[in-house]
Each structure stands twice: as C-alpha cells, then as structure tokens.
Automatic annotation (TrEMBL):
Keyword annotations: Amino-acid biosynthesis, Aminotransferase, Branched-chain amino acid biosynthesis, Pyridoxal phosphate, Transferase
Positions of modified residues (N6-(pyridoxal phosphate)lysine): 203
Name of the molecule in the record: Branched-chain-amino-acid aminotransferase
Higher taxonomy: Bacteria, Bacillati, Actinomycetota, Actinomycetes, Bifidobacteriales
NCBIfam families, sorted: ilvE_II, PRK13357.1
Length: 363
C-alpha cells in the first residue's frame, strides 16, 4: 500500500482540528456526521485520463451549477472502513472488492474506469494522512466514502468529458443507534428501488434517492429500515434500503436473495456466505417469495433474519411489517447465528479471529 499511496501528493494542512477537539470528535461519534481533516481528489479528462492525485484539507468542492451530476445524477460511491486494532495498527477489509464493484458501477453509469491501484491507493493515502482520526473504541471506525461524479459543465445528456473523484473519511459509530438491538423492517409495496435492466446492482446515488419515500413510509410505521420486493412481479424479496438480507431456517439452511442485477452485490454479503460455508452451512442464493417468507416466519420455520452491510455489519431483524402483515421473527430476540457471525466478522476485522481468507490489508 505504501507504493500505491505514494502516487498521491499531500498538500499540507495549515488548519487541522486541535488534538483535544479531534479526541472528542472520535470518542463516540454517530454514523457519518463528522469528518476528518483531509480528503482525496483526482480528476479525469476525456483524452488524458486521471491526473491531479491529491490529499488535501477537507473542504467544500468547487463545482459548476451546470455540472452534469447536479442535473442527471451521474454519481457512484463506495463504503468501507478503517479499523484500529489494540496494537494501534490500522487495517482495511477487502478494499479490492470495493474497487472492483466501483468499476462495475462506473461502467453502468457511463463514468470512466478507475484502476484498482488508484482506488486502493487513494483510500490508503487518506487513511495514512488522517491515521489519528481512526477511533479505537470497539465498533467505532473511520468510515471511508470514495465517490465519483460527472463535473463537466454541460447540459446535454451524454457521457461526460470531465469527471471528479473524491474520498472523504468520517469517524463513525454503529449505523443503527442503540447497538445491536433487533430492528423492524417495513416491506414496501408501493415504491420500488429499481427494475430489470436498471441500476440496481450499481452503487449509485440515485438508487438511494429512490429508496427514501419508501424509507419514510417505514418510519411512519415505526420501522428502522425498508425492504424492497422486485418491481417486475412484486413477489420476491430483494434488499433493504442500504443492506442485504439473510434468512435462517430451522433445519439450518440459510437463504439470501440471488444477484439478479437488481440488488447490490454486497462485500459483507459475499463475505458472510464464505464464512457460513466455512462452518459447513449451506447458503442458497435464490429468489425468495415474500409470501413464503411470511408464512415460514408465522409457522416458526424461520428462526433468524439479519441484515448486513459495511455500515450495518450484521444487524438482527425482529419484525417484518407491511400493509398486509405484521410478523415477528421467532421470539424477536437477536438470533444465535446472527450474533456469532457478527462477532466473527468483527473479530477478523479487529485481528482477534484468524483471517483465513486473507481479507485484511494493513495500511
Ligand atoms: C454501506 O454499508 O457502506 C452503505 O453504503 C450503506 C449506506 C450507509 C448507504
């Protein structure tokens, strides 16, 4: 990572946050509310490719009101975390997987390709510069948010000739306040996140924008997250507003929606499938009918449901609610396998559990 990070020039920060203020900010931050001293920027121009690799003080972006992103939403992003271990070392979890997904997202949104080297180098350069911003409290991390957008000032609808890339870092605590408390999910029947041939598999801002009205309906029904079904048949379970879902059955088998192109291929999702396979547990990636799921919860055949994602880690789900049903998963408590997986994954990230898949990268 030293070599990759060294491609980025560091501009001195003349006004960093004071030590005392920073310590206060990273002590018990909420999710995504405060930001570190620095950011990375890089620019792409048609014909000359990527240049101007810089780490500089965190601050406002200079963007034309005519920039294509502000009109046509040409934007993609990633989310990953830097973890501080007890010995003070700082690690990333599978940044190569995020880099590859970023490339897939870029292709779908007609944005330029960013090499895996530049993606990982930019993230490493920022984490090195702001190493003191990585919280050390368990479950608190430096959440990294790389993103790319069409910055060309042009109102015609076409692929852009100028694009900006940026990485910011946010010392963050758990995504859901209240620790690992099981959450309630609103199953949305009116609004859909995406459809066949759409942008569902890409991590683009528009997917999240499209999820908000449904999320608000969920909030009105006392639910922390919304769950989408497929837009084409309104039958199959897809994903939550920003997380994937797993269902554990009484006979021990586990189901998760298969990647049909309309759901996000989560890095945590993929990692949990591998960890479950290591345990000899069968994970069926399949189309899950919402009706069947509700019946199986009612009959007690489903013993656990959990959500997963970089921000959410592994979060137990206690209840599914919609205009037509309201069911509680088993006793409504966090499931045993859910909590074991959560501890195993966190353990790998914090260096307490053997990283047999070599997922961790030292910064
Ligand atoms: C993540 O889990 O990193 C996400 O991007 C989900 C959400 C915060 C948008």
């Amino acid at each position: 990572l030293t070599r990759l990070a060294s491609n980025f020039d560091v501009e001195p920060n003349l006004h960093p946050v004071s030590d005392a203020e920073r310590e206060n900010m990273i002590d018990k931050p909420a999710f995504g509310q405060v930001f570190s001293d620095s950011m990375v920027t890089m620019r792409w121009r048609d014909g000359s490719g990527w240049s101007d690799r810089q780490v500089k003080p965190f601050g406002s972006l200079n963007i034309s009101p005519a920039a294509a992103v502000l009109h046509y939403a040409q934007e993609i992003f990633e989310g990953l975390k830097a973890y501080k271990r007890q010995d003070g070392s700082i690690w990333l979890f599978r940044p190569d997987a995020n880099a590859e997904r970023f490339q897939d997202s870029a292709q779908r949104l007609s944005l330029p390709n960013l090499s895996v080297e530049d993606f990982i180098g930019s993230v490493a350069a920022l984490v090195r510069q702001d190493a003191q911003w990585v919280p050390s409290r368990r479950e608190y991390t430096l959440y990294l948010r790389p993103f790319m957008y069409a910055s060309e000032a042009f109102l015609g609808v076409r692929s852009p000739k100028q694009v900006d890339y940026c990485v910011i870092a946010s010392p963050s605590g758990p995504y859901f306040t209240g620790g690992v408390k099981p959450v309630s999910i609103w199953v949305e029947d009116r609004w859909f996140r995406t459809g066949p041939g759409g942008t569902g598999y890409a991590k683009c801002g528009g997917n999240y924008a499209a999820s908000l009205v449904a999320g608000n309906r969920g909030t009105d029904h006392d639910c922390e997250q919304v769950c989408f079904v497929d837009a084409a048949s309104k039958t199959y379970l897809e994903e939550l507003g920003g997380m994937n879902m797993f269902v554990v059955h009484r006979d021990g088998h586990i189901e998760t929606p298969c990647l049909t192109g309309t759901i996000l291929p989560g890095v945590t999702r993929r990692s949990l499938i591998e960890l479950l396979n290591d345990r000899g547990l069968k994970v069926c990636e399949m189309m899950i009918r919402m009706d069947d799921l509700v019946n199986d919860i009612r009959s007690g055949d489903v013993t656990e449901i959990f959500a997963c994602g970089t921000a959410a880690i592994v979060t137990p789900i206690k209840r599914l609610k919609s205009s037509n049903f309201d069911v509680t998963v088993a006793t409504g408590e966090a499931g045993t396998l859910t909590m074991q997986l959560r501890e195993q994954l966190l353990g790998i990230q914090l260096g307490e559990v053997d990283d047999s898949h070599n997922w961790m990268w030292r910064v």
